[in-house]
Amino acid sequence: MKCIINRRAQFSASHRYWLPELSEAENMRQFGPCVNAPGHGHNYVLYVAMAGDLDEYGMVLNLSDVKQVIKREVTAPLDFSYLNTAWPEFQHTLPTTEYLAKVIWDRLAPHLPIVNIQLFEHPELWSDYSGNAMEAFLTVSTHFSAAHRLASPRLSYEENCEIYGKCARPHGHGHNYHLEVTVKGEIDPRTGMLVDLAALQAAIDEHVVEPFDHTFLNKDIAYFAKVVPTAENIAVHIRDLLQNPIAGLGAHLHKVKLIESPNNSAEVYAAVPLNETPVAATPELATV
Asked: Mean of the pLDDT values across residues 252-272?
């Protein structure tokens, strides 16, 4: 029986974004304060996903062995290191989150049956890499606060209460929404980036966070005048708002996840371009 197991590890390291072929002003425009010498540090958290058949002892792999491999190949050489000089791979490509995830994959793949590397630079920025050449995924998380009322204008108050319960009460209620936006693209072989991170964050702020924050969604966001602002519908609308701006940055929107509360979240996926596999060609929606 096939099973996927995950092993968590962590290390602390510093890095600097600086390309010697660019002037100081050009580096600053490209990388912002990340150019400052001698660099800055992070507490990285790494998740290694591995797949295999269960053995007679009920294990895919002996986790003690897995721990030692990850320590030997990754965490021991990287912990308390300056990433730019830690490994030869970073002599030409900057050690961004997404490129670091790829290099960790390359280091572990000969030793473990890995299926995904997930690397958190901090709780609001992480990357996934699954062995697809230079393509990776980058996720940015943010938040906004808003109120909403779950009620269809086509139905009576009694009918809305029958469907939405307390959420149909006339004055609405509020949430601190947690938003995760995942983009995918090719890692640039020089900068190590699949998208300009500052520009991505600015696009999310401009098109979602600023317009949505501290609003009554039903009344302040025109789209929800006729569409009930459920977590699912909000996620769909955010996806539609971000798809073109992210494409304009040279990346592809992959997924939007909206966490309404610790008990309720929704995920929507962007439509797959025609030249890609049709497995998820139509948007998928899942609610937990």
From this structure: 94
Catalytic residue among 206, 214, 276, 284: 214
Q: What would the DSSP string read from start to end of 191-219?
A: T--SS-HHHHHHHHIIIIIHHHTTEEHHH
Indicate if the alpha-carbon torsion angle 210, 211, 212, 214 is positive or negative. positive
pLDDT computed for residue 272 by the predictor: 60
* 137 exposure class (CB count in 10 Å sphere: 0-12, 13-18, 19+): buried
| Tokens read off for 233 | 């519908």
Gap between the Cα atoms of 249 and 157, Å rounded: 44
Answer whether 249's CB lies under 8 Å from 181's CB.
Answer: no
Whose tokens are 């149909």? That residue is 168
What is the C-alpha to C-alpha distance for residues 125 and 131, in angstroms, rounded to an integer? 20
Q: Answer yes or no: are the C-beta atoms of 218 and 160 closer than 8 Å.
A: no
State the chain's mean pLDDT as an integer.
93
On the question of pLDDT at 284 being above 50, the answer is no
Round to whole Å and give the CA distance between 105 and 109.
6
Annotated catalytic residue: which of 111, 167, 186, 207? 167
Quote the pLDDT of residue 2: 87
- Write out the two tokens for 159: 């009918």
Is 148 a known active-site residue? no
pLDDT value at residue 1: 74
34 is a catalytic site residue: no
Question: Contact, 27 vs 19, CB < 8 A?
Answer: yes
Three-point CA angle 197, 200, 205, nearest 5°: 125
Residue type, 52: G
Q: Which letter, b or e, does each residue of 86-95 get, where b requires 16 or more Cβ atoms within 10 Å of its Cβ? A: bbebbeebbb
pTM: 0.90
pLDDT at 274: 42
| 167 is known as an active-site residue | yes
Which of 180, 232, 260, 267 is an active site residue? Answer: 260
pLDDT-derived band of residue 279, with 50, 70 and 90 as boundaries? very low
